[in-house]
Write a structure and sequence with these properties.
Layout (H helix, E strand, L loop, with lengths): L9 H13 L3 H24 L8 H14 L6 E4 L4 E6 L17 H15 L4 E6 L8 E6 L1 H12 L4 H6 L3
Helix pairs in contact: 2-3, 2-4
């Protein structure tokens, strides 16, 4: 499948327009859009590797994922291992970000859906993604945690009850 390129800021503008017009259904709709984009990302990665995602060694997958996002114009992203149950993907420049925004919460919903679907395909089981830092919120990076749905739900609940990220993560160390 061919690709289209959006101008810089295009994805952030698209996200903002949907949020402004879709109200409370915007976040689930944006995440679903991201999930649907994952099949295109998967096709590019498997074509580059010559194999299906679940059969790729994880180090190769991370390299190819970083390559995909960079070449597709999303930005650079790096994989970090947080602990045995949780990983993170971190970027300081991302296509879905609008650094002129002053958001109260992380807002890269398309990315969250795309990563959840793509990572689930890569490991052959459900993977949840939770954005815990966002440049649009004033953070220095966007940080996406990933792990089992149960683990990420627990982290989300701890953060929602004003726990710090460090404390929430230490429960799974």
């Amino acid at each position: 499948m061919g690709q289209i390129r959006l101008p810089a800021g295009g994805l952030a503008n698209l996200r903002r327009a949907i949020e402004e017009n879709a109200g409370s259904s915007a976040v689930p709709a944006l995440r679903e859009a991201g999930r649907r984009l994952a099949s295109d990302a998967q096709a590019v990665i498997t074509q580059n590797c010559g194999g299906q995602l679940p059969t790729l060694p994880m180090t190769r997958f991370w390299d190819e994922l970083e390559r995909y996002f960079s070449e597709a114009g999303w930005g650079s992203i790096e994989h970090e291992r947080v602990n045995g149950a949780i990983g993170a993907l971190v970027t300081s420049e991302w296509a879905e970000v609008d650094s002129s925004d002053s958001r109260d919460f992380p807002s890269c919903h398309i990315t969250t859906g795309l990563l959840a679907e793509l990572l689930s395909e890569a490991v052959g089981q459900p993977v949840a993604v939770l954005q815990v830092q966002c440049i649009s919120r004033g953070d220095s990076v966007c940080r996406f945690l990933f792990g089992s749905p149960t683990t990420l739900l627990s982290i989300h609940q701890r953060l929602a009850h004003s726990d710090t990220l460090e404390n929430a993560l230490s429960a799974f160390a």
